Model the fold of this input.
Amino acid sequence: MMADQHAPMLSLRGLTRRFGGLTAVDAIDLDLGKGELISIIGPNGAGKTTLFNLVTGLDRPDDGAVRFEGQDITGLSPERLAAEGIARTFQLGRVFGNLSVMDNVLIGAHTRLRAVKPAMAVIGPLLELGLALLRPAGVRAEEERLREEVKAILARFGERLLPRIDQPAYSLSYANRRRVEIARALALKPRLLLLDEPTAGMNPTETAEMQALVAELKAEGLTILLIEHKLEMVMRLSDRVIVMDEGRKIAEGPGEEVRTDPKVIEAYLGHGLSGTTEQESAA
Done:
């Protein structure tokens, strides 16, 4: 199905998730255009990460719909959505500790493998395993190409990761594990990237580096949905800002306009709306 070129890349309508008597996400509407960066902010517990989980298939909504490039993707598995070009990172970084930096990032490219993915629904997985084990010339050539792509992705982080390319992820600093997770998402070559607090736990220098990377990805035309507590970064990067509180969207618009909205100020009382160093906690 061809998507309407004027339609939003991502569209949420009435998205709702309840946990017992708690409505964690309450009838959220959102339109994200191609190449746009929208930030979602709000006090801790506002429902931001739950919203990400609904978009990326880690959880299913009780009501509402998620559409990606005009196609209803509500409730599809994370694997299916990755194959469609949707990648995400997590609030608490997830890496494979015993795998090297290279192998962690290669996992992100798995959905793009062609030489080891025969298009046969029934016996395809067995053939895929056989090809991966035997590694014929076509498989080796594709692996080498992907390894070069991974090196190019890691180079975007300066000298943070390339010198550690063969080290196991468990040996990395917290900030470098976050970088590996983002590199893995980029290895998917996503059309839509969801970043959940990418600078959580980072110092000011590390935060500035991450902000520069996100700005670079945006300038290259990548569509990004961002959750971030560091408000100065949000204001600098975002085309629009959406504010959530208690599962509801309470404001949406340009950053400076949202920042002075009385409802937003009230929601953030005691949470440091104008601060830039809020500590990471559950969303």
Notes: Residues 61 and 215 are 31 Å apart (CA to CA). The beta strands are 10-19, 22-32, 37-41, 63-68, 71-72, 86-88, 192-196, 223-227, 240-245, 248-253.
